[in-house]
Sequence to fold (556 residues):
Amino acid sequence: MSNKQSFKVCFCFKRIFRVKVAEPPEDIKNLFNQYAENGTITIDNLQNFLIEFQGEPNATKEDAQTIFNSLRHLNIFQRKGLHLDAFFRYLLGDLNPPFYSKVHHDMNAPLAHYFLFTGHNSYLTGNQLSSDSSVHPIINALLQGVRVIELDLWPNSKKNGVEVRHGGTLTSPVELIKCLRAIKDHAFTASEYPVVITFEDHLPSNLQAKVAKMVTETFGGMLYSPHSEFIMEFPSPDSLKRRILISTKPPEYHESQRPRESGATDNKDNEQDDQDDQDEDEENAIPEYKQLIAIHAGKPKGGLDIWHIDPIKVRRLSLSEQELENATRTRGSDIVRFTQRNLLRVYPKGTRLDSSNYDPMLGWTHGAQMVAFNMQGHGKYLWIMEGMFRANGGCGYVKKPDFLLALGPNNEAFDPNEPLPVKTILKVKVYMGEGWHSDFHHTHFDLYSPPDFYVRVGIAGVPNDTKMMETEPIEDQWVPVWNKEFIFPLSVPELAVLRVEVKEYDTSGKHDFGGQTCLPIPEVRTGIRAVPLHNRRGQKYKSVRLLMGFEFDYAE
Fold:
């Protein structure tokens, strides 16, 4: 079944192409014949298929009935069972996603046992130097499931109020109260798990008092404030549902000290300056401001090692991506041990003025809970970040793998620098794709012919696991069929993310973008799945999707 599509080559000549309707690949036909009786798949047959082939051991007849009901509106549906076309439409449909969409991790462990979806300079609409500050990026981040919002606090021009902006730059300000109200209104729309607000504080104590009043009045009972700063472990996400936590460095300056404008190099949380000689200044801080702080940030006093673990007090440490990279060369297992109880936040280096991002894997493999990203910096690394946090129902909290939380027989922590053997082999088969013809104008990819799509498939993970491979381009097809299998040996599947990107081949070498997604490997469902694709900004296309197969073989 097909219709025709014409492309104008010149004033007097048109090229005519047939637009094919998606047809089941050979593997799907064989699979259908394996489970069908007399040319149809019954509810019992479909339940068996879900259990045996799709790897869903708890699939019920009710699950199969739900699939049947979803296909009733199609002309190809018959009450006795599913014919091949109906079975094929189910496989390509919304009821056959590549991962589960419910929270299923243990949410009762301390906060330090989770990766948190974390934003950097969450108020900026664009670059780090001259873009506007606004509540809209904050709202968008929260609606996407981001759980850590960063606000830079500065006195306003009259020195009588507090605004949010990127200090030492040309970025325009936004009032703090507007940011707080936006967080209150949207914090728990996408997820009921806690939101952490990190303050980078450049305020004198009189304005800190105003912040304390503003925060307390805005959030009221939503605000979580511990009774003491001396807590041996952080509370759990489950115990903090629908609560707001403030995280900042306790104030350390006298009231007479004035805030200093920092440049765009971002010395986060003011942790880089005057660390060792201001202990007594904390006593002069506004008490109601200090009492707001649920997660204390800062480096240890008295010249102690930054990875020092205080037995009676947990804290948050912030490092730039470059500082973390330098530390991991010699202190890998110390960093992992630190992050078993304390929080580590990593932020983009100051030279990323275009709001680009960095590889999050280095932070994750060392247990860093808050790998902070510019949510407006769309591209490969943000896609990987979004892929990781599609796990656990997209709630913004992903439980860290056990090896990052455990200690060995000699009380040693995991060392990310030690190579590991292959643990799992992932087989990925890219069958076909569809939906571009519905979601794009017919000349979007090529003025003179249908597109030539190919698929890039690979792994983002530890260095030994990371690789990308690709199919051959299929010429002049809106519904391309590749039938290409890829094999990925994985040594740390727990932290791996599957990258999928579709390109439209161009002889110039500038290949057009045709969609992308990233999937958390630990949550990928085996069998044959419909994989929806997203645009560069991470928004899901209405129709574009791939039909893919997934299989895991566990190394002995």
User: Anything to note?
Assistant: The first helix runs from residue 26 to 35. The mean pLDDT is 90.
